[in-house]
Amino acid sequence: MLNDYRQQFLDYLEAEKRFSPATLRGYGIDLDQFIAFLLERDPELIEKPGEINRTVIRRYLGHLSNEQGRLGL
Question: In terms of Cα–Cα distance, which of 71, 38, 31, 67 is closest to 53?
Answer without folding.
Answer: 38
